[in-house]
Design brief:
Blueprint: H1 33-37, E1 80-81, E2 88-89, H2 91-101, E3 108-114, E4 117-124, E5 131-139, H3 148-156
Antiparallel strand pairs: 1-2, 3-4, 4-5
Length: 159
């Protein structure tokens, strides 16, 4: 056991940071460490690719009407494809349509679970926090078939 408190690790040895006294860097024609490291890993500014903003289409996004409520769909990116007509539908209208067709018990809710599917969730009271069970999965969008209105929107965002 050592006198310094029992640690068996060796102390940190600092290297000589004063390059003026270091004989390695005092040779004529030798660069100082600051100049030698200045561009390591970064490259120079004229070699970097410059970012060019994408060219956006001058025509506005389409604003179709929802077949369920008749109101225009202003946020087309949040719309979901109707499983019967392949037209865009409000997200909230689909949740209302599922709530009409399914019998919900107390504590049940409808949520989007991904992949074009909605689920009926049962929340349970747990001492470890809120947990839920997916009671039923309602497939709404077809995974293999992509709607034409989605293709026209996605083409606007390609570079």
């Amino acid at each position: 056991m050592s006198i310094r408190g029992g640690s068996k690790r060796r102390g940190y040895r600092r290297r000589n940071r004063d390059t003026n006294n270091d004989p390695e860097y005092s040779k004529p024609g030798k660069k100082t460490p600051d100049h030698a490291r200045s561009n390591v890993g970064r490259g120079t500014t004229y070699e970097r690719l410059r970012w060019t903003p994408p060219v956006l289409s001058p025509e506005p996004l389409p604003v179709p009407d929802c077949p369920y409520c008749g109101k225009p769909i202003k946020d087309i990116a949040a719309a979901v494809t109707d499983k019967y007509s392949d037209t865009p539908v409000h997200f909230d209208c689909i949740i209302a349509k599922i709530a009409e067709s399914e019998t919900l018990e107390k504590g049940d809710s409808i949520a989007y679970i991904g992949g074009g599917c909605f689920g009926i969730l049962k929340f349970t009271g747990s001492p470890h926090g809120p947990r839920f069970i997916i009671k039923k999965v309602v497939a709404w969008e077809d995974r293999e078939h992509r709607a034409d209105w989605r293709k026209t929107i996605s083409e606007r965002y390609l570079l």
